[in-house]
Amino acid sequence: MSQEDVPAVFDLERVSFQNSSWTIDAFYHELEQNNFAHYFVMTYDEAIIGYIGLWIVVDQAQITTVAVAPEYRGYGLGQLLLNYVKNFASAIATMMSLEVRENNLVAQHVYKKLGFQYGGKRKNYYGDGEDACVMWVNLND
Ligand SMILES: CC(C)(COP(=O)(O)OP(=O)(O)OC[C@H]1O[C@@H](n2cnc3c(N)ncnc32)[C@H](O)[C@@H]1OP(=O)(O)O)[C@@H](O)C(=O)NCCC(=O)NCCS
């Protein structure tokens, strides 16, 4: 992901998450200021149809966000994005984790297919009070 990609990524963010706490400046900040951050876009016919971000701190990787454009969902692209960053992170980190809304069963299904397991719950994690499930995968497996 480059700075020029951010407006299109942010459009995708807005259609993908109802109560997102991300601002457009947060994306610019991640790209310009956060040395732990790695962000990728997926393109088709030069349009951005998906994106994913992660932080890698020492041997721990954490997915910060992932989305596929609504019209491209259900074709395996979310799994492709996640597999890509699993491979990317496994060169550096030993464990990858993420938080997912308790009611986001599609995302949880995708994470489970990629080997993530439930690690616990964060109560009232989201601004609207919904709990988060913590999921993690061992990158050495
Ligand atoms: C989560 C997301 C990235 C997945 O992307 P995608 O490209 O649709 O994912 P895939 O096509 O790789 O896989 C979708 C899987 O969910 C399954 N699925 C579809 N609807 C489902 C439902 N209602 N309940 C459970 N699983 C469902 C599909 O069958 C498929 O699984 P399969 O491969 O076993 O058949 C996408 O749905 C998205 O952008 N959602 C909005 C943003 C979001 O919630 N991000 C995650 C934040 S933690």
Automatic annotation (TrEMBL):
InterPro entries: AcTrfase_RimI/Ard1 (IPR006464), Acyl_CoA_acyltransferase (IPR016181), GNAT_dom (IPR000182), YpeA/RimI_acetyltransf (IPR050680). It catalyses: N-terminal L-alanyl-[ribosomal protein bS18] + acetyl-CoA = N-terminal N(alpha)-acetyl-L-alanyl-[ribosomal protein bS18] + CoA + H(+). Keywords: Acyltransferase, Cytoplasm, Ribonucleoprotein, Ribosomal protein, Transferase. One of its GO terms (cellular component) is ribosome. Residues 1-140 form the N-acetyltransferase domain. Its EC number is 2.3.1.266. GO terms for molecular function: protein-N-terminal-alanine acetyltransferase activity. It is found in: Cytoplasm. It holds the Pfam family Acetyltransf_1. PROSITE patterns: GNAT. PANTHER family: ACETYLTRANSFERASE, ACETYLTRANSFERASE YPEA. Acetylates the N-terminal alanine of ribosomal protein bS18. Belongs to the acetyltransferase family. RimI subfamily. This is [Ribosomal protein bS18]-alanine N-acetyltransferase. It comes from Staphylococcus americanisciuri. The gene is rimI.
